[in-house]
Amino acid sequence: MGHSPTSWRIIHQLLFLIIVLDDALVISGDTDPLDTSALKGIAASWDNAKSKLPDWAGNDPCGEKWSGVYCTQNRVTSIRLSSYGLSGSLSGGDIQSLSELQYLDLSYNNLSGPLPPNLGSLSNLESLSVVGCQFSGDIPKELGQLPKLRSLNNNRFSGSIPPAVGNLSNLYWLDLGENHLTGSLPVSDGTNTGLDNLTNALHLLLDNNNFTGSIPPTLTLLTKLEVLRLDRNYQLTGPVPSNINNLTKLQELSMGNNNFSSSNVPTWFTALSALTTLYLENLHISGQLPQLLFKLPAIQTLGLKGNNFNGTLNIGSDYSSTLSLIDLQDNQISTLTLSGVPYNKKLILVGNPICDQGNNEAPYCKTSQQANPAEKPYSTHLNCPGLPPTCLSDQHVSPNCTCAVPYMGTLHFRSPPFSDLNNETYFILLEEDMKEQFQSKQLPVESIALNNPAFGPSNNLDISLKVFPSGKIQFSKEDISYIGFMLNNQTYKPHVPVINYGPYFFLAQSYPFAENTPAPKQTKSNRSLVIGVSVGGAFAVVSLLVVFTILFFKRKKRTQLQPQPRSPSYTSWDIKSTSISTPHLQGARVFTFDELKKITNSFSEVNDIGTGGYGKVYRGVLPSGQLIAVKRSEQGSLQGNLEFRTEIELLSRVHHKNLVSLVGYCFDQGEQMLVYEYVPNGTLKDSLTGKSGVRLDWKRRLRVLLGAAKGIAYLHELANPPIVHRDIKSSNILLDGNLHTKVSDFGLSKPLNQDGRGQVTTQVKGTMGYLDPEYYMTQQLTEKSDVYSFGVLLLEVITARKPLERGRYIVREVKGAIDRTKDLYGLHELLDPILGTTSLAGFEQYVDLALKCVEEAGTDRPPMSEVVTEIEKIMRAAGVNPAADSASNSMSYNSRPPRHPYSGDYQFDYSGGLPSSSSRIEPK
To answer: Do 866 and 847 touch, CB atoms closer than 8 A?
Structure first.
């Protein structure tokens, strides 16, 4: 009998695989001889290569996997030797022979001497990292021949910047700060290129050198720049280019401590709407500071000391909510006007006439104004159940209370967006983000520790860093190679929402690697043996594959005659077949897979109503006519049997008209599915943003909030045991056909201790922006964490703004704008325009309640039962009867159909941690 076309295709694929394997077994690992020679020559220029790189022996770097050497096929494409403790130079060897080299990372070694010009022959080089070394001399002009180079960082270079650097059209990060460079800043002149050709540059750091001449006006052609530092050159002269307002994406501009021409207060800053940090220190600028400077929407730090600003300082009352530091030391300011909402962050006026007029005790006449100057510098908290362990001399205690040898160094943030070092949230978020990114790269990182943050003399924020290994006492050389590469080349970039930590550089300490044994050398006879074994191995593989092919078709013929049983990943709950007992359900039923398959038309696309983090959601109709929503778990979201059982029992135990009801569940044929009542009118978030057809006026919003408050109060005070929801937000407040409120998504819920006291959780869960900072910082979970989230929700309902949007945190926005002496507390500009056209009776009491709910200390927040009572009072003041059962008698619809609450924008994770994309937290 002949084989089908599919069978012949499989045979052809197997034969192709045999040929490939046969070829690979014979030649894999045969490193290009030129690459081998080049590596040996480089190693010969290092004084301690034999002790630090004992496996750099033999003649096959790729096949023998030399430390820090990475290959594609038989060509070396990456050399990563960060923190290996190497000493010597880079003068030996024909490094230009490494023609496929893309990454060269020699950072944090004791290497010195000049950079060899033949680096310019590495046409595929994308990253050259020599930070933390002691290379000196001129920057080779030949580096301008590297068309793919994307980053180049500082060392101890001298001389001038070669114009050829302008040829690096792909460069995004040029850090030549803190060198000994001289001369003028090169620009294009028709013959040579210059810095103004770096049109893809994001970070241009030229600070703390000895440049002379003026700032070229054409430098402002680099319109993608986010960071520009020219400060502390002292000899830059001439005017500051007025067209600097072309750099509209600038986040940091530092030009202080130069010898620019005297000038009046510039006006170009008004166009820099993205600016967070502005340093114009000691620049001979005079005049009265305009209020517009303090209104820049993202501004955080203004360093303006040592100028001639004079007259009256009037910050105004509508200054930017992000502004945290105004340093005006040593100017000529004589008076200070405080109007409206006075500025209450850090203001330094030391050395101004105003501080010589009997005001020397005023806070602004003191340089140190931290909220608590005596507070200890931040240090990562240890999660030890008792006393921390005693470690060996070269080991440290990790945050998880294990002893290990960490990778250590110092992070230097060049333009930190905050000045309050007492706010631990900045550092906790950075620790978690760094750990998550390392782990996402499959690096064995257990935890991150940050210690002793402080501002250095260059306005850098310096933070000590320790990276601890996971599952072992010490990192391998390969581990350090990857971690060092991520830090040295800014491959790691903090992805903490709201907080833009800006550019940084990392100064590492040498890592004390364990002594390792050199890899055995392969002699000529060994080499012959390897080839012989390879050929023999290839023959064996060929034989095995032929046998496999014959057996494959025989087995296929047999199996085609037999029905194929379903192979579930785990069995249905059955007391006889598993140690996990069937859940004890209250008012919910068990569905089989076949039942739900029929109800949802075989999970057809027609019934698909959305996708969330838990999986897809399908609409269905029970035989009784009841509409349901079936949430079907995807493979990556499956839980353990016990965990799934526990959550089902929790959900089935909760019954309240303002909580979404669990109809049942399915745990069958390898599936986990949850069946809920169908809620047709979308979410409160949809209504506030206009995405649904439901529009809510003031009275309707109050009624929706009352229903939500009652549902949450039930969880806290009447459920047995009490339950903390942990994810109160507008997308979890659903509206049914009569606009009754339904609080949904108890996937993150957690029962409280029977005594009602808070409990410590091992992982903080919830949605950033709504998340209680006290819970986040202490991991102490109480029902007051839900109260805080509800307070954020109250503010979201009157503003129709996301809790976190474009760097603005709604709690801080309202607190900064509130003026209780004005109508509507002066919050007109923050209100949802839909509300602005109606009467808002009870509004002031509403805002007072919201701010009580978001008090920093949980003990100062009201319980949810009190929140219910207060909302009822507000409703009466607005002329609404709290006992009325529905808001539908006055609801209105747009022509378009409502967006469904289970659609893709809203994650219905059943057991999720902190979301990583749109979810954010803003420290207060």
So the answer is: no
CB 276 within 8 A of CB 320: no
What is the three-class DSSP state of 722?
coil
Radius of gyration of the chain (CA): 33
Catalytic entry in 207, 327, 330, 727: 727
**Cα–Cα–Cα angle for 207, 208, 212, rounded to 5 degrees:** 85
What φ, ψ does residue 11 adopt, rounded to 5°? -60, -45
Q: What is the reported pLDDT for 752? A: 62
Hey, how many other C-beta atoms are within 10 angstroms of the C-beta on 587?
Answer: 12
Residue-wise DSSP of 284-331: -EEEPPPGGGGG-TT--EEE--SSEEEEEEE--SS--TT--EEE--SS
The answer to whether the annotation marks 802 as part of a ligand binding site is: no
Residue 723 to residue 447: CA distance in whole angstroms: 30
Q: Going by C-beta distance under 8 Å and a sequence separation of 6 or more, which residues neighbour residue 687?
A: 694, 695, 696, 735
638 beta partners = none
Quickly tell me which residue has 């962050």 as its tokens. 345
pLDDT of 267 above 80: yes
Query: Does residue 749 have a pLDDT over 70?
Result: no
> Residue 529: pLDDT above 90?
no
pLDDT tops 80 at residue 93: no
Q: What residue ranges define each of the domains in the chain, with the CATH number in brackets?
A: 31-128 (3.80.10.10), 396-508 (3.30.70), 589-677 (3.30.200.20), 684-893 (1.10.510.10)
d(CA 359, CA 325) in angstroms, rounded, equals 20
- What distance in Å separates the CA atoms of residue 867 and residue 853, rounded to the nearest whole number? 8
Q: How far apart are CA 826 and CA 819, in angstroms?
A: 5
Helices (H), 512-566: 524-560
The pLDDT score that the predictor gives to residue 568 is 35
Share of residues in the chain with pLDDT > 70 (%): 77
Picking from 789, 783, 798, the residue whose alpha carbon sits closest to that of residue 847 is 798
727 catalytic? Reply is: yes
- What count of other Cβ atoms lies within 10 Å of the Cβ of residue 830? 19
The helix or strand, by DSSP H or E, that contains position 610, with its residue range, turns out to be: strand 608-611
**In the predicted structure, residue 861 carries a pLDDT above the cut 60:** yes
Least confident of 424-428, 487-491, 814-818: 487-491
Q: pLDDT band at 876, cuts 50/70/90?
A: very high
pTM of the model: 0.53
